[in-house]
């Protein structure tokens, strides 16, 4: 049996992208909303090897107040999908690859939740700006590493057994952290 080389990819975009794009240029992660190929609006790069790329990222905002010698942090952390930076090759993409791409977005949400948890449990000092930034950079690095591991272990969706394991793993992690809201 001849197998076509089909790769998928992902792209993590930092919060700066959110501010440079209009409201219609990103989708907020929601448990009831699944991606569809019609949302992948980016142009396929010339000579690209992957079958699809999901551009997703985490953004945050916060305000800090000093109250009785303690820094109180109000924050919002969200996972986004960027349609104009996400693309696919219709001639090689199917529902399996779309589910693989969806899981990239779900992994992004999982790490947004990890950041929310971290921000809640951290006691901040007067250096709150650099402390929040440090947490954000670490979470983005962890997210990037896990996204790479996901692609590697699933062979970009071509290993059905590994894909199912990742699907279950991320679903369970999202269920465990379902109560983590901003």
UniProtKB/TrEMBL annotation:
InterPro entries: DUF922. Pfam families: DUF922. This is DUF922 domain-containing protein. It comes from Croceitalea dokdonensis DOKDO 023.
């Amino acid at each position: 049996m001849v197998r076509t080389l089909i790769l998928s990819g992902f792209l993590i975009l930092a919060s700066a992208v959110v501010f440079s794009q209009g409201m219609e240029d990103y989708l907020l992660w929601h448990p009831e909303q699944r991606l569809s190929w019609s949302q992948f609006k980016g142009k396929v790069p010339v000579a690209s090897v992957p079958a699809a790329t999901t551009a997703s990222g985490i953004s945050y905002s916060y305000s800090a107040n000093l109250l009785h010698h303690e820094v109180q942090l109000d924050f919002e952390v969200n996972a986004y999908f960027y349609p104009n930076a996400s693309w696919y090759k219709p001639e090689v993409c199917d529902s399996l690859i779309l589910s693989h791409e969806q899981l990239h977005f779900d992994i992004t949400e999982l790490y947004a939740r990890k950041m929310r948890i971290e921000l809640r449990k951290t006691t901040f000092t007067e250096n709150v700006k650099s402390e929040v930034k440090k947490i954000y950079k670490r979470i983005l690095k962890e997210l990037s590493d896990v996204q790479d591991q996901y692609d590697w272990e699933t062979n970009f969706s071509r290993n059905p057994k590994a894909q199912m394991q990742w699907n279950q793993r991320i679903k369970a992690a999202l269920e465990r952290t379902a109560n983590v809201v901003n």
